[in-house]
Design brief:
alpha/beta; five-stranded mixed beta sheet; 32 strands
């Protein structure tokens, strides 16, 4: 027996109270009147009789009551052996981890051997199912009691490039127990990688019908990896490109590694980097010469460790010709063209070439040839050209419109249904200028760190936004930048000009990133990263390509989709590392896929974490833990308090009885 609060046992000293009441309390005699004591002999009266215990049963009750009260506050407990619950019909789930980290050495083979041993230990008639798991669960056998079929399911588990997700395993275990309405015992065979644990521990929760038995396969081993590569997804000129690679070591000592850059199977450059202990190093290459078309790149290191699958990092890059953009402006006002073109050149943006034209000249060209169209403070457009622009936008094209004194001559924004209200000027009689008081930094045309501070706006056209999204406002609440969706296209409206007359925006550093981001947004220049992780999805067709057939070639050169899927699938998930080729009617796209580098950290989860995970199905009881089997601490507090209550009642009844007898004697 033990005590949760043993310091309360000091209260046993209060047992002296009933002893004082019954034995040590001074005897007092009741004086009686008497005539004279002169004939009595004086002597000392013995007090032994008065110090004898009286009412022994009452004394015992009071002493026991005080002692039990002290014992109750000390919270006594006893260790109780808890027998396993009745788990009749328990189903075993043989879960084998086949994520990337299990490729280190012979981890997967040893895990499969341990799983087969667990199958042979199953009870007679006990059913089981073999599951492989990484980022998702995959059934490798039916639910059966046939050991041969279960062993065949274990043999069928193949290594993958997926990432470990113990949260997905816990979710699947809860789902299996709920669907079968039977208790489930999960036999987990894994390297128990720490990086596979979810950020929120509650995601590992198991219900009371699930019992977890983890079987760690291996301890941490040192590992080097190419953690990340930064390379251009698309190249628009013949300049040599920059590639930056990050080399990481997990559980490693300081070492030198040779890093090689390859393009289309040919080594471009190699260099040596020093990776600090448990640290990272970078290798910069400035000699990437990208030929036209799709190109397959790779950065590789000579690690020599037990996990070679993460010693290389794939990336894809494409050399394409710049796209043309149409810039429409009045013949007598070319300042906006000068500033806009200069801003694109200053940003280093080579994806677009600007073709200037007056409204009359633009009427003779087709907008469909251009990535986007800019209308810079133009008046009335030729009706045929404006109708073409409307059709161009509805079909997915983009238009950037800047409003100035020429635009004010008409009643509505060209191409758009946004209506004019008035022209706002800043003059001497009021504010000399307005500023951009509010910017929506979530919009692609606005950078988070680009606040347009210090820009002075002297003239702006106030418009009624309607269903357009307001992206920026002036200090007098005039909408400055609006984004309107029309059909499948985009219309970006800037209610001032680019010519340094209505504002001084072109003279500020914020003008260059705005022009660059607006051009990328309007031209749908979403190049994306040069590589994506395993498990990512890619869109195969949009609404315009509906009904067309798409062919996908996996890293092994085989078709990833059937003919039926190629004609109807909207997207595809990349399940392994390597290069995928997507053949669309519009052209070829090469996608580089890499395993999640969190798998490269082979450190296992602490034993304390695993123990907590095992106990999530049972929870805790009182101050001591309780589990499904073994020992638990059983509190005796309630039993002691019941005894205290019973003694208190008995003491009260017996004390009243003796008190009544004493009164009668008196």
């Amino acid at each position: 027996m033990g005590f949760f609060a043993p310091w309360f046992l000091a209260g046993v000293a209060a047992v002296g109270l009933p002893i004082w009441l019954h034995l040590l309390k001074k005897h007092r005699s009741t004086p009686l009147p008497f005539s004279s004591l002169m004939f009595f002999e004086q002597h000392i009266q013995s007090s032994i009789k008065h110090k004898r215990l009286r009412y022994l049963v009452l004394f015992a009750l009071r002493t026991a009551l005080v002692a039990l009260l002290a014992l109750a506050f000390a919270k006594p407990y006893v260790h109780q052996q808890v027998l396993p619950r009745n788990r009749a019909g328990e189903v075993a789930v043989i879960a084998v981890d086949n994520s990337l980290s299990m490729r280190a050495g012979d981890r997967l083979e040893r895990a499969k051997q341990m799983a087969k041993t667990a199958i042979n230990r199953l009870g007679p008639g006990q059913r089981a199912q073999v599951m492989a798991f990484g980022s998702r669960m995959q059934a490798m056998s039916e639910l059966t009691d046939d050991h041969a079929a279960l062993s065949a399911g274990v043999d069928a588990v193949e290594p993958s490039d997926a990432r470990t997700s113990f949260a997905e395993l816990a979710r699947a275990a809860r789902s299996i127990a709920q669907s079968l309405r039977l208790p489930v015992a999960v036999q987990l065979f894994s390297d128990m990688q720490q990086s596979g644990m979810p950020p929120n521990f509650s995601d590992l929760r198991l219900n009371q019908d699930v019992r977890l038995e983890p079987h760690p396969v291996d301890k941490q081993v040192p590992n080097f990896t190419v953690e990340n590569v930064v390379a251009p997804r698309r190249v628009y000129d013949a300049k040599k490109q920059r590639v930056l690679a990050t080399i990481a070591g997990f559980g490693t000592k300081k070492a030198e590694r040779i890093v090689s850059l390859s393009l289309n199977g040919r080594v471009v450059e190699s260099k040596t980097v020093t990776v600090p202990e448990n640290g990272r190093a970078t290798a910069e290459f400035l000699s990437l010469d990208v030929p036209h078309g799709q190109n397959k790149g790779e950065v590789r290191i000579d690690s020599g460790d037990t996990l070679p699958q993460d010693d290389h990092f794939y990336f894809s890059t494409e050399r394409v010709e710049p796209r043309h953009a149409l810039f429409v402006h009045e013949a007598d006002n070319s300042h906006g063209l000068l500033y806009f073109t200069s801003a694109l050149e200053a940003s280093g943006q080579t994806a677009f070439l600007i073709d200037p034209a007056s409204p009359e000249q633009a009427a003779n060209v087709s907008p469909a040839r251009y990535a986007f169209v800019v209308l810079s403070d133009v008046g009335a457009l030729p009706a045929a050209f404006e109708n073409e622009l409307r059709a161009y936008v509805r079909g997915g094209g983009s238009v950037l419109i800047a409003l100035g004194h020429n635009s004010a001559a008409i009643t509505h924004v060209p191409v758009s249904d946004v209506r004019f209200e008035e022209t706002r000027y800043a003059g001497r009689e009021g504010d000399r200028f307005q500023t951009a008081a509010w910017l929506d930094s979530s919009h692609p045309a606005i950078l988070n760190d680009n606040r347009w501070e210090g820009v002075k706006f002297y003239q702006a056209i106030r418009v009624t936004p309607g269903d357009a999204r307001v992206v920026a406002r002036l200090s007098d609440q005039t909408p400055l930048l609006l984004d309107q969706q029309a059909g499948q296209g985009r219309i970006l409206i800037f209610t001032s000009t680019f010519d340094n007359v209505a504002n001084d925006f072109p003279l500020h550093a914020s003008f260059v990133p705005f022009v660059e981001q607006a051009a990328r947004y309007l031209g749908r220049l979403d190049a994306g990263p040069a590589g994506v992780p395993v498990g990512s999805f890619a869109e195969l067709r949009d609404s315009k390509a509906k009904g067309s057939s798409v062919e996908v070639i996996d890293p092994h050169g085989a078709r990833a989709l059937s003919l039926e899927q190629g004609a109807s699938a909207q997207n595809i998930q990349f399940t392994e590392a390597g290069f995928y080729e997507i053949h669309r009617p519009t052209g070829l796209e090469t996608v580089a896929v890499n395993a999640d580098r969190r798998e490269s950290d082979l450190a296992p989860a602490p034993q304390e974490t695993l123990a907590l995970w095992e106990n999530t199905a049972q929870g805790t009881s009182g101050a001591g833990g309780t589990s499904e089997s073994g020992q638990r601490d059983l509190s005796l507090w309630w039993y002691v308090m019941i005894a205290v209550l019973a003694l208190a009642v008995a003491e009260s009844l017996l004390g009243n009885k003796h008190l009544s007898v004493d009164k009668e004697v008196a």
